[in-house]
Amino acid sequence: MSASVKRQWQHFVSMPSGRRFQTRHRLRRPQGSSLWRKALIVGLGGLVMLAGVVMLVMPGPGLLAMILGAALIAEESLIAARLLDRLDRFFTRQYARWRAYRASRG
């Protein structure tokens, strides 16, 4: 993994749950992206999500591809970033509940 990608991933993971995607969107926004670049990234994200749906019934990492596609779209769309932050917050809470339940049983 290149140092830049690794650094970006560490920064993304260090952000609080529920604000990660919106913060990433805001950081990427001021770069003055053109309409063509935005359309290309959203289109690519849509294709990756579509491939993920196909991989749900065929062999392959379908959910991972769908999440990656949604993250690509969220870089260009604040609405998608907010939705992913809500999902992130929901799944973080569910994981904490599950860990507490497992700890109380064990």
Task: Please report the distance between the alpha carbons of the first and last residues.
Answer: 38 Å
Please report the number of helical segments: 5
Main sheet summary: none
* Net shape: globular
- Indicate the structural class: mainly alpha
Residue-averaged pLDDT, rounded?
86
The domain count comes to: 1
Q: What's the helical proportion of residues?
A: over 70%
Whole-angstrom Rg: 16 Å
N to C succession of SSEs = HHHHH
* Proportion of beta-strand residues: under 5%
> What ranges have pLDDT less than 50 throughout 5 or more consecutive residues?
none
Say how many strands there are: 0
Report what the structure shows.
The chain has 106 residues and is mostly helical. The protein has one domain (20-105). The chain has five helices and no strands. It has helices spanning 3-14, 20-28, 35-57, 62-76, 78-105. Helix 2 (20-28) packs antiparallel against helix 5. The longest helix is centred in the last third of the chain and has 28 residues, at 78-105. The radius of gyration is 16 Å and the shape is globular. 15% of the residues are buried. The mean pLDDT is 86.
Outline of the structure:
Helix content is 82%, strand content 0%. It is mainly alpha-helical.
Can you lay out the helices and strands and say which pair or pack?
Elements: H1 3-14, H2 20-28, H3 35-57, H4 62-76, H5 78-105
